[in-house]
């Protein structure tokens, strides 16, 4: 059954806009997540969306350098490493986006003058990389036991030239799209935590993408819940 | 983050155990940990797990102009990233660069630059071996775009046009590490992280399956006898043969899976039966009500507040939007204004004299001792300065740049 689904995913990814415009044809790719796979970090997770794969490791709460310490809450640091080449400006901006999202949910005030470091390594990039990074970071924070007020997930939408909305686009779909929007949503009230957009779109399309993201986030959170239920089923 | 230091009792325990020929994980002296190789969907991407040590290798290529002193050779570049996972002092790139022989021919004034990026994901000892295996596997797995040269024309085919071509690799050198304890009395193959912390020195031998030694490196300042080194090289020969066989098998498996059209990539290498791993198939999302929701939200939303921006052009190059907020810092010190002046004045700007109706009088402060904050707008044919609250006098503005600064400094000294 999984094999059929997998080939289905491939076909759908290739045809892309085979789904009716703005119709119920959007789909998320095959998801997989493995937690606690690295021995050194306090928490780690590997998140796969289709062929995009990101590995996240969390250290914390740990000792912080005096220059970086904040007296009343934890210092959150995000490091994103690309697969090829040295980290550049694009990585820095993504790190900032992810850090802002994490700071909104992590209860830093419970661990003042400590540091929580999230290290993300891009293992393979086949579209919707930022969303995959966000998901991996969230699962790694959960694995590390960092206190959070909500879980968060990332979803990427792409709008192609005739306005069709595609969720969780592949790299080919992202390249041919008119606009690519990534949103981070929390699971308590499905409110928006972070948005990063590239391209041209109208405000109606923005709201449609947001609504689609909220619908998609439900599936992602169900995936989180089921994977954590599986993990703690034997304890 | 600081590394947690190794406690003395742990150190003593490890050394005592080694003296009694016991290792913490139950291995024998010459045993390697389990090696697991998994490939990604792109060519040239692999993850190697040596016990818990994990290294990700990725190979990429591009056409570049060759180095001047080696005009006909390609360039092979290694990069080992040690992220926050660990910070040892070794650089495997050095070892690998010396002996890896890959012929990369010159293609019409450009050569291939092959770049191997190795990322250490988890440090549990023996990074050098893991990194060397990852590099060799990634290079063997990699496919470069096909190129054809016809006279002066060079055509680079995309992977869709023509199947990419593997690199021509002559032999596969693998590093084997030996850790020495108690001044060379005891040795262990493939030390893990704890054993590495208490070792005295490390000997790395890079060999290929034809028993040719490519590199030997000894670090840590241990003094070894000749027969110790020979013994190590014999052990290395055996180990390298085993590892090379493992690599070949993994590469063949992957190739078979790709040819048969089966599933490949990291998604498949996540073990199903592990309780910490979970998979979900493709999920369709119903987005049919997305349009209505969006329209609702837009209808209910308040219109954006009217933003009236009336830009005022003072001089060419100086414009102002809005009035700004009242300065809440209190009285500015002289020194801060000094900095402003130094930054604002630019003698090089010579503008056409466009007389602007500024609407603000040029007030003459007069004496140098004035410390009031006043706005001075200069005539455009004089030295234009940015509008800032500053203490200055008309006299100073006419003078060249350096003088006002000096005068102000004197003023401060006087104060």
Account of the protein in words:
- The complex is a heterodimer of chains A (235) and B (415).
- Chain A is of the alpha+beta class and 235 residues long.
- Chain A is built from five helices and ten strands.
- Helices cover 29% and strands 24% of the residues of chain B.
- Chain B contains ten helices and 18 strands.
- In chain B, a hairpin with a 5-residue loop joins strand 13 and strand 14.
- Chain B is extended and about 90 Å long.
- Classes of the chains: A alpha+beta (235), B alpha+beta (415).
- Strand 1 of chain A pairs antiparallel with strand 16 of chain B.
- Chain B: Its main location: cytoplasm.
> How many domains make up the coordinates of chain A?
1
Helix share, percent of chain B: 25-40%
Let me know the number of strands of chain A: 10
CATH topology of the domain at 32-271 in chain B: Ribosomal Protein S5, domain 2
Q: Could you say which overall geometry of chain B the principal axes of the C-alpha atoms support?
A: extended
SSE layout:
The complex is a heterodimer of chains A (235) and B (415).
Chain A: H1 2-15, E1 27-28, E2 31-35, E3 43-49, E4 52-62, E5 75-81, H2 89-105, E6 115-124, H3 129-144, E7 152-159, E8 165-167, H4 171-176, E9 179-186, E10 192-199, H5 203-231
Parallel strand pairs in A: 5-6
Antiparallel strand pairs in A: 2-3, 3-4, 4-6, 7-8, 7-9, 9-10
Chain B: H1 8-19, E1 35-39, E2 45-50, E3 53-64, E4 75-82, H2 92-99, E5 106-107, E6 110-122, H3 127-141, E7 143-144, E8 147-150, E9 153-156, E10 165-166, E11 174-181, E12 186-189, H4 193-198, E13 201-207, E14 213-219, H5 226-259, H6 266-269, E15 277-280, E16 283-284, H7 290-300, E17 311-315, E18 318-321, H8 334-344, H9 394-398, H10 402-414
Parallel strand pairs in B: 4-6
Antiparallel strand pairs in B: 1-2, 2-3, 3-6, 5-6, 7-10, 8-9, 11-12, 11-13, 13-14, 17-18
């Amino acid at each position: 059954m999984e094999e059929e689904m997998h080939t289905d995913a491939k076909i759908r990814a290739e045809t892309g806009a085979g789904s009716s415009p703005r119709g119920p044809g959007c789909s998320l790719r095959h998801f997989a997540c493995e937690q606690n796979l690295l021995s050194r970090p306090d928490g780690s997770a590997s998140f796969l969306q289709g062929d995009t794969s990101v590995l996240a490791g969390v250290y914390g709460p740990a000792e912080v350098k005096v220059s970086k310490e904040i007296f009343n809450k934890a210092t959150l640091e995000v490091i994103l490493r690309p697969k090829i080449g040295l980290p550049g400006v694009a990585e820095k901006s993504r790190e900032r986006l992810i850090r802002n999202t994490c700071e909104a949910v992590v209860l830093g005030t419970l661990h003042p003058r400590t540091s929580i470091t999230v290290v993300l390594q891009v293992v393979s990039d086949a579209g919707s990389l930022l969303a995959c990074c966000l998901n991996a970071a969230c699962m790694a924070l959960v694995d590390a036991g960092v206190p959070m007020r909500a879980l968060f997930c990332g979803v990427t939408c792409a709008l192609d030239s005739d306005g069709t909305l595609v969720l969780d686009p592949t790299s080919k779909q992202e390249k041919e799209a008119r606009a690519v929007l990534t949103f981070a949503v929390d699971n308590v009230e499905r409110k928006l935590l972070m948005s990063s957009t590239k391209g041209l779109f109208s405000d109606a399309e923005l709201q449609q993408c947001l609504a689609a993201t909220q619908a998609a986030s439900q599936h992602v959170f169900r995936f989180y819940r089921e994977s954590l239920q599986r993990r703690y089923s034997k304890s | 983050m600081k590394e947690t230091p190794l406690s003395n009792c742990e150190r003593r325990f490890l050394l005592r155990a080694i003296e009694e020929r016991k290792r913490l994980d139950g291995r024998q002296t010459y045993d390697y940990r389990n090696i697991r190789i998994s490939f990604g969907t792109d060519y040239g991407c692999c993850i190697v797990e040596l016990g818990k040590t994990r290294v990700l290798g990725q190979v990429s290529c591009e056409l570049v102009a060759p180095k001047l002193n080696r005009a006909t050779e390609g360039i092979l570049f290694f990069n080992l990233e040690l992220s926050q996972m660990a910070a040892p002092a070794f650089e495997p790139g050095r070892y690998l660069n010396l002996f890896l022989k890959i012929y990369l021919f010159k293609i019409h004034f450009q050569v291939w630059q092959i770049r191997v990026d190795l990322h250490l994901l988890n440090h549990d000892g023996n990074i050098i071996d893991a990194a060397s295996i990852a590099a060799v596997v990634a290079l063997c797995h990699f496919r470069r775009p096909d190129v054809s040269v016809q006279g002066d024309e060079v055509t680079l085919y995309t992977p869709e046009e023509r199947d990419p071509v593997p690199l021509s690799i002559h032999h596969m050198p693998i590093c084997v590490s030996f850790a020495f304890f108690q001044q060379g009395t005891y040795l262990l193959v493939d030390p893990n992280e704890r054993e590495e912390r208490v070792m005295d020195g490390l000997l790395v031998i890079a060999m290929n399956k034809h028993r040719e030694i490519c590199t030997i490196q000894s670090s840590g300042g241990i003094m070894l006898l000749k027969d110790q080194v020979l013994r190590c090289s014999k052990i290395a020969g055996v180990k390298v043969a085993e590892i090379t066989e493992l690599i070949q098998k993994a590469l063949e498996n992957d190739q078979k899976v790709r040819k048969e059209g089966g599933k490949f990539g990291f998604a498949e290498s996540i073990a199903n039966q592990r309780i910490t791993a979970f998979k979900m198939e493709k999920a369709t999302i119903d987005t049919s009500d997305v349009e209505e929701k969006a329209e609702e939200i837009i209808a209910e939303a308040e219109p954006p507040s009217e933003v009236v921006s009336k830009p005022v052009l003072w001089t060419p190059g100086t414009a102002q939007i809005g009035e700004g907020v009242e300065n809440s810092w209190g009285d500015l010190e002289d020194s801060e204004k000094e900095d402003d002046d130094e930054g604002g004045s630019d003698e090089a700007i010579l503008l056409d004299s466009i007389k602007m109706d500024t609407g603000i009088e040029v007030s003459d402060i007069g004496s140098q001792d004035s410390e009031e904050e006043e706005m001075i707008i200069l005539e455009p044919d004089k030295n234009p300065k940015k509008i800032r609250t500053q203490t200055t006098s008309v006299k100073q503005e006419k003078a060249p740049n350096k003088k006002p600064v000096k005068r102000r400094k004197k003023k401060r000294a006087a104060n």
